[in-house]
Prior knowledge:
Elements: H1 10-24, E1 27-32, H2 38-47, E2 53-57, H3 67-74, E3 77-81
Parallel strand pairs: 1-2, 1-3
Amino acid sequence: MEEWSAGQGIKEVADFVEKQYLTNHATIVVGTEGYFGTLPDGLQAYLNKYSKNYCIGVGLNFDILPKSLVESNASESHLFSGE
Length: 83
């Protein structure tokens, strides 16, 4: 198996999020494509040791930013979203 479905890049993203958390001491919210499986569950497995990190699955093919991410961005969080 290759690419994201095999978990490629998840550890690197987790390392980036961890660095942001340790640098900024703020809640980190990551929006992921899909509600279960490799993303967001695989990413959350790496970040469980930090209580202020959240992975939110936002589904596929959306035209507007989902409400859960908009609300997270309005709080004192650092928000990351990508494909």
